[in-house]
Amino acid sequence: MNPTPFFSIIVPIYNRPDEARELLESLAAQTDRDFELVLVEDGSTRPCAAEVEAFRSRLTIHYIVKPNTGRSDSRNVGMRASHGAYLIFFDSDCIIPPDYFATVRRYLATEPADCFGGPDREHPSFTPTQKAISYAMTSFWTTGGIRGGRTNLEKFKPRTFNMGFSREVYERVGGFKDMYGEDIDLSLRIHQAGFTTRLYRDAYVYHKRRGNLRKFFRQVHIFGQARINLFKLYPDSLKAVHTLPAVFVLGSVGVLVCAVLLSPWWLLLPAFYLVLLFVDALIKTRSLSIALRAVIASLIQIYGYGLGFLRAFVDKIILRHGLEDLETLKRVYK
């Protein structure tokens, strides 16, 4: 029998065999190999069985195929099948740098934490649109500061594209709930249970995210809705920074009204912001075309999140719809 691995990697996957190959290739190149991979196929019509078989000789893989029940249940299934002292979560569209686990092990020795996470970065192989989306999701000038590795805006809460915690955390707190914002919900429960959480800045991953702007809008729209659900479950979790996209949306309407009724000079406000985004993106990406795309992606991120936030605020706070469903989520999901 093999000794218990130090890390158990848990990845839900749905219809993404190409991404699975890239992820597996990056895991096979790790300098610290003391891990197992639990890959949970969530009812895919395009499974990654062939990709898994191609890496059987290079990785310890537990490949679980089950009906489609969603990413939260898939992660919970993966945790129940895991054996490691620490559970690590990645999204299937991540590429892992070769020293990731060596870096995490070093952090655990020098800055111990019960729960931890790291930022994401763009990879040279990403398409221009993916690089633009990466900018939008990590820039201080959008709502991406936390994901980019900054903690000054709110207390850091790991996301499941790059998140880990000890087995003791899992045994005491339980797994993921079937809801939008499930990773933040679990981070909040971990904090409430008295466990420590840290940001490991150098333990980053390359996160592809969505391949086109339409899917990106839908994703961030859901993020905005999730924030209201989390507020209903944890009233203290809502911070001023979370309302900024909604304020931006309402402010944009106000600026347009003032520009029409009072003076077109009001349009200088959004123009200044767009120039700021473009210059910052140009400095960071060193590409004119990507910087232009980054401005569009940033606006999609802010408006998508803000509209989702406002939609859920009206639905859940003002009209009080779906409160019964939220009440059922207050229990700990085992």
How would you characterize the overall build of this protein?
The structure is a single chain. The chain has about 325 residues and is an alpha/beta fold. It folds into two domains: about 5-210, Spore Coat Polysaccharide Biosynthesis Protein SpsA, Chain A; about 230-330, no CATH class. Helix content is about 50%, strand content about 15%. The protein contains twelve helices and ten strands. It has helices at about 15-30, 50-55, 70-80, 100-110, 130-140, 165-175, 180-190, 215-235, 240-260, 270-285, 290-320, 325-330; strands at about 5-15, 35-40, 60-65, 85-90, 95, 115, 120, 160-165, 195-200, 205. The strands form two sheets. Strands 3-2-1-4-8-6-9 form a seven-stranded mixed β-sheet. It has a three-stranded mixed β-sheet with strand order 5-10-7. Helix 1 (about 15-30) links the parallel strand 1 and strand 2 (about 35-40). Helix 5 packs across helix 11, helix 8 (about 215-235) runs parallel beside helix 11 (about 290-320) and helix 10 (about 270-285) packs across helix 11. The chain starts with 6 loop residues before the first strand and ends in a 6-residue tail after the last helix. The model is unreliable at about 145-155 (pLDDT under 50).
